């Protein structure tokens, strides 16, 4: 059961990872250690893939780095069969010390807000899309979700979900909550007074301050002019820069991208399977499209990892994780 009074003090002190706020999404449980922090996880059962159940952790533990091994040890002792997804290298190394196997999950794209610009040939497409949407009359405003007409928002949301195959991925992408959430910010695209799109940002914290944002929500209507999402995103980045104190914007992870055999890849089977899926399995998840849309903003790449159990089929474990993430 989620208890914000217990979770938020830890989140605001230690939640600097882009997935930290996603740990507040519905359907998760919390392993809490007093005066240390917590781990957000989901229990997953499937009659074929996980008949005895498995717990999936979706981010780094929300605690000080010095306490990673302590909280992980207690979590594994309590929960048993578990897999950690989308964790940093520091957490991956800690998991390895408990006998879990580690492989690359993919890379997250992140820009420095203060130095980011759209100059140069490599950003030409951003300038072109931004200008196109602006010329077609798209305006950008920031507003709390409570002040947006719900009927318009429902229309945009339903059209976007339909275009994406009628489903939302979970865990990797925190679902849209339709109500005010602390420190979450929304930028809205309007054309002739009608809502045609929105981009939402989850906060990233450090020592009780918001130091960055994760672009977690994107919705565009069928009527949104080409380039609208770029126009809105760039407007948000510009506002973050103007406000000061915001260091970075993360565009999220591109699963199975930027894989390197020489990095932490304990299972060659999983390494090869991940490369195969990225190249050929767009029907499961838009691996290449996801990567393309993040790469266009440039920025740095940060590797993220996932764990697997030393026993059992690696392929079955990978399929179980993808099923838990809502990929199929």
N- to C-terminal distance: 27 Å
Shape: globular
Helix content: 25-40%
Strand order of the largest sheet: 7-8-9-10-11-6-12
Query: What is the makeup of the main sheet?
Result: 7 strands, mixed
Strand content: 25-35%
The structural class is alpha+beta
Mean pLDDT: 94
Q: Provide the succession of SSEs.
A: HEEEEHEHEHEHEEEHEHHEH
Count of runs of 4 or more consecutive helical residues: 9
Low-confidence segments: none
Number of domains: 2
Please count the beta strands (DSSP E, at least 2 residues each): 12
What would your notes on this structure say?
- By secondary structure, the chain is of the alpha+beta class.
- It has two domains: 4-108 and 254-324, no CATH class; 110-250, Aminopeptidase (3-Layer(aba) Sandwich).
- It is built from nine helices and twelve strands.
- A seven-stranded mixed β-sheet has the order 7-8-9-10-11-6-12, sandwiched between helices.
- Helix 4 (124-135) packs across helix 6.
- The longest helix has 16 residues, at 228-243.
- The chain is globular.
- The model has no long low-confidence stretch (mean pLDDT 94).
